[in-house]
Design goal:
By secondary structure, this protein is mostly beta strands. Helix content is 9%, strand content 56%. The chain starts with a helix and ends with a strand.
Length: 75
Amino acid sequence: MLSSIKKNICGKVTRTLMEGSIEVYPIKDYGAVEIGFHKFYNNEEPNAISQPVKFIIVWKNENDKWLITKVISLH
């Protein structure tokens, strides 16, 4: 999976966070959920229009380290 991502996405796509869109909610005895909007741009098509899409990230706080356990990007 990692080699596929490096081959097909790295250096070809730019992700931009929509300013002011982040919401973070604690999950008792687990971590937190982060919700926001981002845009993706194809670096080879600089004039293409990108619509904001919602993403959700579930974070786990384990031994004082924040780990991503699930990423959902609704695009």
